[in-house]
């Protein structure tokens, strides 16, 4: 142990000069072996200093400089003693904190990494901070989300007043965590967090859509970021997740619609439309192979998505003639006829509507409910056109197919019709 009274053996000016040397890091090769201290002091010239200690104080000191040759205790000796003293003294936490207080982030990183070369230190760091791995972080956040969501599952409604606090809590936890994960480039984890929160909404019982709206928006903001992430497959990640969830029957309507809109607005390109159109054509081909051109009513469960097919054609810029041609090619589908009928109605082409309805009534004769619906529409149109003969024929035609009660109803309608004719 070095006795700090060694300083008394030096002149103040020499101590100051020695301190400057020491602070500048001029001391190298410092070696302390029992009572012997040895070091090299750099400066204009390099001097080897050797000191022999006794009872904590220097007994004999040697330096090669002129000052020492004159018999003085030189600045080099003082510098070495300061360095030896520092090396010996236990460093307090206070010292450490003063040393690292002003380090930059990079310097701190390097320092920690350097320290972590020591296995014990590395283990300690892992123990203390591994819970901040993206995976662990997700678990932690998930538990916190449990607490936010628990009150509104099954046993309690989320009302407008509670929803303010609820949404703020959920959104800020979601957004903060996602940002942290994002900064760590844990994009997939950020996405998983957003989908976890989104699906939790499936169980929340709320008064009004707006009570969960901002949470949905926060989730979708993350999806948008993932999609736009350059150099990744974010688009497919989000898309395949959405598609898989939309096939899940337990998803409530509001979530389904939100996902569907997101897919349409953010993820659907003309290439997707073309792909979907081809897919519909494949099923259509198979369907026609099996059923030929036999009429297909709207109650046929697994019929090809012809409505969607027409929508896609229009979306892709097909002109009216092209769409019409396709429709007539697939006239056996009640859906196709329905679309054409609605278009004719919108143009005010009642004649066309009537002709499609009359045709459909025959084509879909096997489906009494559909026939009745056509018939109702026809009767209305005949009446509007003042075509009493058609009305009478239609009513008579229906008469045979109706229940007793309905027959009586028709009977009265025909009587009324005839009384007008007098
Ligand atoms: Zn010297």
Summary?
With 422 residues, the chain is an alpha+beta fold.
What report would you give on this structure?
The chain has helices at residues 12-23, 66-69, 75-88, 93-100, 105-115, 119-129, 134-149, 160-183, 187-200, 210-227, 234-246, 253-267, 270-291, 306-315, 320-329, 334-347, 350-363, 368-385, 388-399, 404-421; strands spanning 27-33, 36-41, 47-54, 57-62. The protein has 422 residues and is of the alpha+beta class. The chain folds into 3 domains: 4-89, no CATH class; 135-268; 294-385. Strands 1-2-3-4 form a 4-stranded antiparallel sheet, covered by helices on one side. Bound molecules: zinc ion. Residues 47, 63, 65, 67-68, 74, 76 line the site of zinc ion.
Record keyword descriptors for this entry.
422 residues; binds zinc ion; alpha+beta; 3 domains; rod-shaped; 4-stranded antiparallel sheet; 20 helices; single chain
Bin the helical content. 55-70%
**Poorly predicted runs of 5 or more residues:** none
Hetero compounds: zinc ion
Query: Radius of gyration from the CA trace?
Result: 44 Å
Strand order of the largest sheet: 1-2-3-4
């Amino acid at each position: 142990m070095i006795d700090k009274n060694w300083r008394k053996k030096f002149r103040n000016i020499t101590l100051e000069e020695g301190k400057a040397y020491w602070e500048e890091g001029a001391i190298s090769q410092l070696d302390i072996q029992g009572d012997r201290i040895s070091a090299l002091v750099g400066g204009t010239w390099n001097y080897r200093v050797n000191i022999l200690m006794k009872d904590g104080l220097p007994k004999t000191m040697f330096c090669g400089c002129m000052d020492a040759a004159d018999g003085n205790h030189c600045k080099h000796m003082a510098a070495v003693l300061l360095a030896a003293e520092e090396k010996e003294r236990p460093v307090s936490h206070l010292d450490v904190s003063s040393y690292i207080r002003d380090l930059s982030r990079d310097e701190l990183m390097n320092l920690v990494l350097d320290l972590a070369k020591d296995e014990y230190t590395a283990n300690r760091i892992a123990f203390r901070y591994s819970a901040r791995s993206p995976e662990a972080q997700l678990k932690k956040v998930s538990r916190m989300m449990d607490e936010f969501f628990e009150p509104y599952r099954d046993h309690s409604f989320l009302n407008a007043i509670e929803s303010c606090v609820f949404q703020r809590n959920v959104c800020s936890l979601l957004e903060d965590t996602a940002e942290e994960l994002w900064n760590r480039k844990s994009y997939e984890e950020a996405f998983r967090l957003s989908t976890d929160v989104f699906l939790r909404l499936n169980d929340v019982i709320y008064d009004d859509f707006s009570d969960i709206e901002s949470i949905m928006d926060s989730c979708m903001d993350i999806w948008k970021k993932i999609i736009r992430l350059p150099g990744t497959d974010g688009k497919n990640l989000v898309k395949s997740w959405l598609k898989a969830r939309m096939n899940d029957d337990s998803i409530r309507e509001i979530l389904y619609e939100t996902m569907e809109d997101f897919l349409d607005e953010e993820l659907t390109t003309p290439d997707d439309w073309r792909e979907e159109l081809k897919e519909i054509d494949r099923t259509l081909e198979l369907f026609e192979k099996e059923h030929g051109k036999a009429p297909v009513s709207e109650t046929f469960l697994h019929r090809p998505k012809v409505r969607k097919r027409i929508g896609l054609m229009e979306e892709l810029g097909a002109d009216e003639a092209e769409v019409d041609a396709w429709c007539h090619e697939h006239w056996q589908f009640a859906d196709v006829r329905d679309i054409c009928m609605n278009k004719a109605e919108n143009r005010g082409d009642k004649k066309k509507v009537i002709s499609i309805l009359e045709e459909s009534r025959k084509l879909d004769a096997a489906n009494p409910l559909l026939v009745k619906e056509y018939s109702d529409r026809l009767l209305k149109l005949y009446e509007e056109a003042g075509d009493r003969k058609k009305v009478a024929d239609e009513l008579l035609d229906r008469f045979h197919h109706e229940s007793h009660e309905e027959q009586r109803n028709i009977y009265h309608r025909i009587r009324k019709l005839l009384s007008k004719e007098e």
